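pasting for ref. prot 1 ->
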Amino acid sequence: MNRTDRLYALVEELRAVSPRPRSARWLAARFEVSSRTIERDIGALQEAGVPIWAEPGRTGGYVVDRARTLPPVNLTAAEAVAMAVALHRLAGTPFAGPGATALRKLVAVLPPADAVEAHRLAGRVHLVGDGPATPVPAVVADAVAARRVLRIRYADRDGTGSLRDVEPLGYLGNTRHWYLVAWCRLRDELRCFRTDRIRSVQALPDVVSREFRPDDLDIPRVRVRALSLV
């Protein structure tokens, strides 16, 4: 069992027996790790906002507040990332801290595979400044998660249209616009397509195998950052 799976399973184990405690030794035997590993895992969960505390004594151990934790959450990876983008807009407000804590709690109780996919998808979203508030076409919004090639009709700044097949790799947002970062098969290079200039979209059956590397963007690293779920 990897660490992500174990963290999720630890919360569920403690929820199942709450308000009774589970000792570090019992949990270590249950998950076939050392007591020290369990203590580190519990510390990580506490830092993420999961309400776990230790009860002292011979019969003590770790307890989770069942009333303040969630059962397995059926959020999709895209929904978790959508929440992260929305919370990014709270920066500088009194709600930024509580919002970030709420998101960490949700991600902490996602099924392991969904949590891994959510972090992977978040790593493909990059923001410059505060990020944009403009809408993105639904097919384009789904493209990076779906890993499917798109056939788009695109208009450049002069309004000249072109039809091209692109491999969606990620998103880039500045204060005014969203861009689809994709490998353009017509130009045989990485391009950024402003989403409000995409006139039509058709999803193709081809699967995208390339990975998004932020270093490929012609933007100083100090100005661009990946979206984070933590």
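and prot 2 ->
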Amino acid sequence: MYKLVFFVPESHLEPVKTAVFSTGAGRIGDYDQCCFETRGSGQFRPLAGAAPFIGEAGALERVEEVRVELVCEDQLIRTAVNALRAAHPYEEPAFDAWPLSEF
């Protein structure tokens, strides 16, 4: 089992979650589309050569984003991350995926 965490602007929250959930990620027992969301502020500065969705190269940008946390079966994690990347508006979406210990 993996924990997948990603950050997405609120404007694209539902489409990105839908894409990730469509892979089977976010299932816990007899429940699907399970996640936890936290709102906050993120920042980044696009470097030369970047094609940012928001902001301009060389300028620091701050964006209201949502942190989404969910679990994902081992065999689905690569597919879920690929779906996340395909649906996310940023050319380099921020995310973490780490294996969980079973108890």
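Residues 6 and 42 are 12 Å apart (CA to CA).
The longest strand covers residues 61-72.
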